[in-house]
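Key idea: predict the complex, not the pieces.
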Amino acid sequence: MHVISLTASDLCLAAFLLLLLAASSYHIRLGLERRMLLSGLRMTVQLLLIGLVLKGLFASASFPLVAFMSLIMLLVAGYEVRARQKRRLAGVNGYLVSTGSMLISSFTVTFLALTVMVGVEPWYTPQYAIPLLGMLLGNTMNGVALASDRLTSEMYARRSLVEQRLLLGQSWQEASGDIRRDCMRTGMIPIINSMAAAGVVSLPGMMTGQILGGSSPLDAVKYQILIMFLIATGTGFGVLAAIWWISRLLFDDRERLVLENLSTVK
Amino acid sequence: MTEVHSPLSSPDAGSGLHIDRLCFLDSGPFSLHASHGECVGITGRSGIGKTQLLRAVADVIAHDGECWLDGQACSSVKAPQWRRRVAMVPAESFWWYDTVAPHFPSGLTEEMTRVRLRKLGFGDDVGKWQVSRLSTGERQRLSLVRSLVLNPMVLLLDEPTSALDLKTASLVEEMVKELCCQEDMICLWVSHDLDQLGRVAHKTLTLHNHGFTEEKR
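Result:
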């Protein structure tokens, strides 16, 4: 199937729709127009740049370049997770938790998928490795950011209740258990909903892209099923790791709640 | 008023609760000794750190110095275990289940718990009560019984009758006196009410920024 190339004017027309939304936001004083336009602009520049980078990367297929690209993606994702929290872990711990939890989950799952399930040779072939890692990191980032933001906010808001439970001789795990479970759910619900709605309510992006690119729908579906399982697993374990890690840092070695480790974004 | 000196640095000072040069935030050092069966009243102006003192003894805030219970240092015991032995009942209690019963670790079936609840004016159906419908005074009394379920050796009470009428407050006073007398419990009772401390405490200390003075009777 022939792929219809999009022209610059096609993209401008789509951008005009976003401008309309921004104008509506301004009109009803939502206060989101500036963020909306900046995000749109940022997305356009980032994707154009990554298009150029991927073109060079695919041509070279060198492991150091793929590893370097993956590291950059991870560090940016870690920064984004931290930036989206109202109350965040102060100092280097904040970056360590967000990047560390995504490293543990997304990288492991991507490596497993490339070596065992897809079985591409060599396993770091950038046409497979970079898009897979990108999709996993993007979704894990959302899950980890949502769960972490909720955890730090809830621990702060319900600090007296947590302390009450500590006073009754509960361990830090028991005292913060309900809050931690709520936060894990918050982080995982979006991907669970996406899985439940896939193919019925929505046609996921990767599958749509493959179909538009000329793949057979069945091949596209198989890849989409694989990626959905991988995303769910990566997001789930990323969320579990981040919540455990942050919670541990919010209690000291005497199991006292130490909210001094949190800084507030003004 | 008499100044209380004698900071205790040795765990060999006998059984009971030893607070040895305890410092927290910008306050301290505070030292005191309470024997088994003794109730110590602690008073002082608002904001001086009475609640923080109790929180430091319960080991829920960072502090310097050490607390000893029957010769065993707080830092040598796991934190949850220490807090079960040295139970603090905060001025405002918090609840996380819908009804009262699940908040009691061993349920409300223990006879001792039922007896205590009855003494404080509750019926046997209190476990089914909705927490959201409890008054402040009911919460305060239930919070005391909830902590007693842990069978603590030390009870840290932060204004335990601030939301109670005189008659109900006297029920709490009687119960704590009984606990000290019959079960050898140690009690630190924080209050602004000197008359009340005169009734329940064996001695009353006034908290200052850097130590205690003892109130003369």
